[in-house]
Specification:
The structure is a single chain. The chain has about 500 residues and is of the alpha/beta class. The protein is built from 18 helices and 9 strands.
Length: about 500
Amino acid sequence: MLTGEIKNKIDGIWTMLWTEGSTNPLTNIEQITYLLFMKSLDEEEMIKESDAKLTGDVYESIFPVDKPYYRWHIFKDLGDNEEVYKKMTQEIFPFIKTLGTQEDRLTTETAFSKYMKEALFQINQPATLKRVITAIEELDLTNRDTSGDVYEHLLSKLATAGTNGQFRTPRHIIKMVVELMQPTLADTISDPAMGSAGFLVASSEYIRQNQNDGFFVSELAKHFNQDMFHGNDMDQTMLRIGAMNMMLHGVDNPKIAYRDSLGESNKEKDKYTLVLANPPFKGALDFEAAANDLLSMTKTKKTELLFLALILRTLKPGGRSAVIVPDGVLFGSSGAHKSIRKEIVEGQKLEAVISMPSGVFKPYAGVSTAILIFTKTNSGGTDNVWFYDMQNDGYSLDDKRSPLKDSDIPEIITRFHNREAEVTRQRTDQSFLVPVKEIISNDWDLSLNKYKKVIYEEVEYRTPLEIIEEIKSTDEEININLTELSKLLKGENILE
């Protein structure tokens, strides 16, 4: 989590743009992100140059040697506001937009360059630009976690943009999901509703931390940078932010596409080994807009159900998925709800249902959600489904989302990866196993409360007469006190 000081600095930058007249949250996020990207890119470049100097290797910078002012640590110190603004709008920003297209570095267009083509620099006042640059310079982005937290705080501003709030998934929830699924260099990973690419970024970080040796194998390193990460979105701005996010986290060319994942034009099938997603909850499509093969699996206009059908279609046999769904998916009584649950439970292998409290997505939404984890088998295989009742995700469940001392997340990860030890747990525990036959007999209902048992302790209450006597006694005491207070106010001696 960000410190209050860093949050205040980001909010201050936001206020600068707002004061200038830029009141569109997405536009402001985009402009701040461009500058954050330039700063981080220069810092990453300096690290690579320093490493090359230590090892004696020759490193060719992405920045032109004859134009040093393209680099953040140079242009931030240019004194004249007009000069900085002119260089930014006429040279530096156009150069940043072309990254990944230089023939001497990459021969194919990258996701970054593809979606930066239409980018506009919309900080319109030289003095504002200089103030924003000065404020951003005070942010330490050398730590990737801090950089990600800055992105997270920026994206939180989308709450004021209405439905755009769907793009945000809390980073600690993303990290938990990734640690549950443990992606490897052998995976091909997809997020069909990628937003700012949070799941893809977290997956790349997990692989770097846990399979670093694999990068010495050229084919695996190429797979990581070119073919491992796939994402779709319908918003060009989020695609740009997602592409920058991936590039800053060391993925050169993710396969990010402007695409309606649920539409007929999306032909992806049996393609991915791992799908991680938090699809839109409240969307609804016309039947004509959804792909026919998805509708054949679940005849519905609800996007949360159609995305489950999509995930089943795009996974390879043996592929795995962790997807966040609203609670209604777990117990909805419509034919569409039952048919998709039946397919996951009986046609595939459902492994886990992790129920999350409603405050996880505050202040953006109060909806209760769950994480479904399943494997595509096309031949069933569900035996015992593991349920976990998350009550504490490490933050308060109000709009402030203040950090708390404890969290269920470490226990969730530990218990999930040791499910054989869960056999002895009772239904009164925070986690337990449910046989597939019981789930089938309940119309494939996956809601935690359907199976969890609650022990109610008997409480003995006083009789009504005892309560009345206590009230009378309290009233008498109040009257005595009021009488004494009245005498004091009149100057009378209360001892008389």
